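explain this chain.
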Amino acid sequence: MAGQRHDVREMEESFARCSIEDEKQGLVYAEDSSELSEIDTRWCLVGMFLTESTIDFQAMQHKMASLWRPGKGVYVKQLEPNRFLFQFYHEINIKRVCDGSPWMFGRFHLVFERLKEGMDPRTMPINNLDIWVQLHGIGTGFMSQRVVTDIGNHIGKFVEGDANNFVGVWREYFRVRVTILLHSPLKRRMKIMKNATEWC
């Protein structure tokens, strides 16, 4: 019995020396994601500028808001030094921004992707840029919507053609909107063949 009492006393003394604070070293804290929990992903863009320079966040958000003029405003959050979340409040506003691309701040193009449900805006890839391209040197026999579409898909991915491409008697060039991959080289020219004999 004396030995048992001695063992119990040693155990009690050992527990008494333990400190709750010592256990903090083993705790793991989850990152607080509440800052993004209120974001409505239906009308969000995640964007970055094509530059290695530091972006003046305050100047940028005022500039983009003045260019876009969304009816219900826009909320801008800086996720990283050159990664931003743009929250709109209506489909009309975000569609107008998407359709009006490319946008610039100073000399830097804004590249963006629409945020999809369940994606992390901090890590989602941003690889595409929509631009308008002028198509010059198209011969008379090649002036058709199909040719314009095919050229757009050769440059990148065809999005739309200018509504005025086939309006009027004579046009010096056509305009086509395409999506290009940022890391792919631009294509300056191509050859088009008609009836296996005629080239443009």
